[in-house]
Design brief:
CATH superfamily of the largest domain: Aldolase class I
Structural class: alpha/beta
CATH architecture of the largest domain: Alpha-Beta Barrel
Radius of gyration: 21 Å
Bound molecules: S-adenosylmethionine, iron/sulfur cluster
Number of helices: 17
């Protein structure tokens, strides 16, 4: 395979939350028996140690502490993990993000996270309506998000993302815009603006709430996009909006089909080398993971899977990528995109000059991707 050796993003998963939100299908488990911080951190260190050859051979470009709720863990655990990864507090730092639930703001304080080198904070705000937050089963109210944001700024976080969800149960377009407006007023560098999806195996899937009608959703989307644009945010992925120079390096690496190593319960990785491209997955259940942290299921991606996964990521970017990126990242020739690519171009959904959708194709992204399955 002719693919060049890429850099490496790191994802580390923290699988516990105070409470399971009814819409969430992430690998997150309610805290029933208390937080197993020490054994879990030790398992992470053993897991990372099992990949020391890989880590020694690549430059780490980003680290993402995701969950679950990583902010249940103390700064000391993150210090140990960063040190095991070889990411120290000296010299140029990669982007290091921690996801935090505003309801855990007082557990450890943000200064400690900043002091161990974490330089980006992603706050799960979701909404600024207390009524909506309650329906979403959140453990915080809007005021706590405002306080968490202010605390994070005081602690020195100058790169903050807010997660906001729209299309909430019974939400009106005016309420959607109110949420976005309040987020914008805080002036975060990045806003992840997600549409609520009813994921299988969640409480909302079992007992679906009343969601806004389609015409309301269209109104929310177009008015929300206009509001974000007017406030200086640029959409660089389906749900990601950033102020100039504040795109998330970690997420861009996924969408550009870069390599990443995944550590922790249920964490996924994607690694390429001269033998091909493979996906890795750790055990999802925290207990099973802690029993055998370096155990992973490895799946080699064949040409058809590679083609699909490359497009699944690249087409999420409104501008896509040049055709040459396909062979750089996968070793595949662009001929593998045919005949579906030419058909998509003829239907006005795909561009002729690069791997990207047209504006119309971006609206119907799921359908476009289906044609490559
Ligand atoms: C792992 S969570 C973020 C951190 C933390 N656990 C929290 O919720 O505050 C990632 C984000 O995905 C979004 N999300 C999760 N489930 C979703 C769903 N079903 N529909 C839309 N967005 C969802 C939420 O905005 C959430 O903040
Ligand atoms: S706090 Fe975040 S990860 Fe945990 S259940 Fe809620 S949305 Fe999911």
């Amino acid at each position: 395979m002719g693919a060049s050796i890429p850099t490496l993003g790191i994802y580390v998963h923290f699988p516990w939350c105070v409470h399971k939100c009814p819409y969430c299908d992430f690998n997150s488990h309610p805290l029933k028996d208390g937080l197993q911080e020490q054994p879990y951190t030790q398992a992470l260190l053993a897991d990372i140690d099992g990949s020391r050859e890989l880590l020694a051979s690549r430059n780490i470009t980003s680290v993402f502490f995701g969950g679950g709720t990583p902010s249940l863990f103390s700064p000391q655990s993150f210090r140990q993990v960063l040190s095991a990864l070889g990411v120290t507090n000296c010299g140029p730092q990669p982007e290091i993000t921690i996801e935090a639930n505003p309801g855990t703001r007082e557990y450890h304080g943000f200064e400690g996270y900043r002091s161990v080198g974490i330089n980006r904070l992603s706050l799960g705000a979701q909404s600024f309506s207390d009524k909506a937050l309650k329906r979403l089963g959140r453990i915080h109210c809007a005021d706590e998000t405002l306080r968490a944001f202010a605390d994070a700024r005081v602690a020195g976080f100058d790169n903050i993302n807010l997660d906001i969800i729209y299309g909430l149960p019974e939400q009106t377009p005016a309420e959607t815009l109110d949420d976005l407006g309040k987020a914008i007023e805080l002036g975060p560098e990045h806003i992840s603006w997600y549409e609520l999806t009813l994921e299988p195996k969640t409480e909302f899937h079992r007992r679906p709430p009343v969601l806004p009608a389609e015409d309301s959703m269209l109104e929310m989307e177009s008015a929300g996009r206009a509001l974000l644009q007017a406030a200086g945010y640029v959409r660089y992925e389906v749900s990601a909006w950033a102020k100039p120079d504040h795109q998330s390096a970690h997420n861009l690496n996924y969408w550009l089909f870069g390599d990443y190593a995944g550590f922790g319960a249920g964490a996924h990785g994607k690694i390429s080398d001269s033998a091909g491209v493979r996906r890795t997955a750790r055990a999802s259940q925290p207990r099973l993971y802690m029993n055998d942290p370096a155990h992973q299921v490895v799946t080699e991606l064949d040409a058809s899977r590679l083609r699909f996964e490359f497009l699944l990521n690249a087409l999420r970017l409104p501008d896509g990528v040049p055709f040459v990126d396909l062979s750089k990242a996968t070793g595949l020739d662009t001929a593998v995109l045919e005949p579906e690519w030419s058909q998509g171009v003829a239907r006005g959904l795909l561009r002729k000059d690069r791997i990207a959708t047209t504006a119309l194709g971006f609206v119907y992204l799921d359908g476009v991707l289906q044609s490559f399955l």
